[in-house]
């Protein structure tokens, strides 16, 4: 549920912070006051692409934050955990900062996020229905999605889609294999040879690095031994050996310490230095004892390095990529071998098709049940919206297997008595389509899991008693403790039924137009409903009518 929306320097909003509650809320105001700005801002916070021009004039950036209560939204809670973006409390904070140059940054609970992550979250938080969104209802894909969402089998539809894709991939592979069996056989033989040759190296990246280090060391062996011997000589064998001089220094400091204890720190340091020098000498001598400069071993190393480079040049692979290439070749060889085995591609394709059919048939059964209920619900909603003898049908037409199941889903409507059900775009006029789309939304989202639904002027073209019915339908939709229905409307009949009423207004300040939104009390609502009823001049009659509508 949306708790708060804060907007800073967005279009004609300088600074705004709105708190929201559950139930049915209405936003009203004069044309051009900026009612849709709230929807636009929230949409950006939910990951919508920025089309530019949203930063308020003379400002560097726009800043939008939306706070949601998610304690009852397990889907969102799980998503946040999976993406390591959860917060300590039961609130979710989405933030979008958009700069004047068009660049933007997104945040989830204060952590940097991507627009795709905002969008994924937004699909489980808010549904926005705009004035022209009924055009999407004309698409068969949208009609199928509405039915699957209403029936609660969207996950089954997604599984069916995935199973179809898995089967189709095997089907294409089968056709390709049958067409190119000889080519695949040659490829398999070549892969076996390459894998056998590569495995003979017993190659690992760490061994390769060690091999190169050993080669460098042994190639410069004489120079290395000369340097180490010179170090040892300088430390203890030379006439001016460092160790002898340091021992002398140690003796002198020790004598001086017996006279002045302030030299204690210096004495400790020289003792430590002498110990380190002795350890250095032991280390250098141990190195000389262990260093292996066997010429035969050097030849073996050089031969192995050469063989590895030859194999790499032959197959155009860098030694650093041998291990990943081995895995790729092995996977391809396993795939080709499986095609030739007893349970090869034919059997795999058959199993994949069976799995798809089982899922698709379950989906068809679920759709049949849901279509009957949805048809009844939308018919009932239509008749409330002045389609007195209208009817609605979710038609399921069997078809060949597709990724979306075994049937085509199409919405049919008969707008009056005796009319034959026809596709929506053929049966409904422009005004009827607006009412019909509202009936479909109200009836189909009654089981929606999304806690916040926003209707942006979907009641355009509706008036009179129908407008009151629309308001009642929306209010009924908002009768849920954890559901919000927010409606932007020009209709007094709709706004008067809202539990919470916000007014959008605009002012002229410093040669700029600014938009403001605030929650109204009962007295302010009377004036606003009266304005919506009577226009510019508010009379006692319109004010009395407003009181009657608001029942105050």
Automatic annotation (TrEMBL):
It comes from the Bacteria. Pfam families: SMC_N. Keywords: ATP-binding, DNA damage, DNA repair, Nucleotide-binding. Residues 14-510 form the RecF/RecN/SMC N-terminal domain. Belongs to the RecN family. May be involved in recombinational repair of damaged DNA. PANTHER family: DNA REPAIR PROTEIN RECN. This is DNA repair protein RecN. It comes from Candidatus Methylopumilus universalis. The gene is recN.
